[in-house]
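From the pipeline queue, job 12 of 40. The input is one protein chain; the requested action is below.

Action: predict structure.
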Amino acid sequence: MCGIAGLAGGDAVRHEKTVAAMGSSQHHRGPDGTMHAAASDGRAVLAMNTLLIVDPHAMPGPYRDRATGILVAFNGEIYNWRQQAAAWGIEIGERETDAHFLLRAWTKIGPSCLDGLDGMFALAVYDPRAAKLFLARDRLGEKPLYWRLDGGRLAFASEVSTLTGYGSAPLVLRPEVTAIETPTGVDTPFQGIQLLAPATLLSFDVPTGSIDQMTWWHLENRSPFTGTYDEALARFSTILAEQIPLRSPACDFALLLSGGLDSAVLAYLMRPPVCVTVRYRGQDRLDESSTAAVIARDIGAELVVVEPDHVDFTQALPHMMRALDYPMGNASTFSEHMAYRKISDLGLRVVVGGLGPDEFLMGYVRQALVLFEPDAVLNAGLEAYRPLAAKLLHTAGEPLEPAEGAARLILRGPDPDGRVRHLVADAMARAGGDLARGLTLADLATAWRPLVMTSDKLASAYALERRSPYLARDLVELSYRLPAEHKITEPAQGKRILRDAAKALGLPREVWDSRDKLGFASPVPSWLNDNLATWADSQIRMALTDAPPQFRPLLKEGLTPGSRFDRTRMQALMAAAWFSDQTARAAA
């Protein structure tokens, strides 16, 4: 997990020290070296924080092509770089990595090389021959990249805090923050700073100051799968068996093992030496550690069990919020943070997790509620989700449109501008009438961003590279193309084809026949109404003093205790911790 930062503009080289400071501010992302380099024409300076995974003896970046002067800063991993190097006739020398491959591929092919890359990445390329800076992100936005314009110069970085340190950026309350706890699209809570959208290529022409953006990959353009279920299962199983192990690093690594289907399949296919699970004492409903123990024993891995308590949460919150840059809605944030901290303490550098199948293969109960109607879901043994199902109640005789139902289930608060509803409706329209594909696109447009962002940012805070093998291009595209009945045939058992693939690959029954989904859920919301109630009220009230007026209603909402499913109080507390961090940064 590396980091990148930089500046492009007519006088960029005069700001070389500024770029060096930008790189240093995110040094935790790359403890193997933070370096910067100026372009040969002086119009760009790039910085890179290097975490060496592919080759521990490789030189830290940025990297320069001597013949053309092209300069590259790179964050992430390209898993098929050796295959593509052979296909494109690119020579790779000793002590060279996927970053060197990318430099030569860009020099030889240009931006069109992006389509051949299978991996997670955020990159910056400056070409002095055209005086152009290019920024690009991977297909699903696994690696973050922020940018801003300032006086004819474009600055970019892996972290928002790096760009707020570059220049002032007033706080802005995006309306969707009250709806789903985090900004959507390319917005951030900082005026003038944008997140580059996934699968997007931005080009900045230095002489004219003009910016162009294009989307270089469209998931919805993939044609529907027309074969039989057996043909789909065979293809899916083959891709799993080929692509998942390809994402195993050469070094020792840890797997986040919740005990559920997704992480269990990764365990059997990747054979990690270490598995890490999180449990909470007295919270049997959230405890899957016994299943995790069976899986770890089966594959011969060491199982490390992390057991945080409410005191750990109070101590971890400031560090979590500093790592995240701004509040993000994610129920497993605390569990992830504690797992990453433990993995770092073990001296490991790579952690693997199971993001993806729920979104692409209908693994969420909210998706089943839209596909099957509430009564069918509740009668299938999912009575615990009645509070969620209640969101779909509507006037008798007036059918609820799927887009409206999906939006209600995604929303966690008011949607004053209807922005979330618009995003969901647009996703449904882009899916061409296939409801399951529409639900996938709706998730990618709303709830997906905080999932991938928290995974990257929390792991990077501990100098860990986070890998999500299910996001392999071939697996994602096939999963999206499949008809709904290949993904789910009954409300309580989504991810049908993944279950059957696990069965075909010989995994034990307790893996492929599991029904309930817990993941790394935590009891934090209930703690905030119980033994942390007084502490939480104090934190929120202190933040109210310094918070901008437009944010105060959000904080005040958190002073009212909620139900076990209500995250309003958690959202307000995270916002309070964020404001405290902003105040501390400003004073530093």
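Job complete. The first strand starts at residue 3 and ends at 8.
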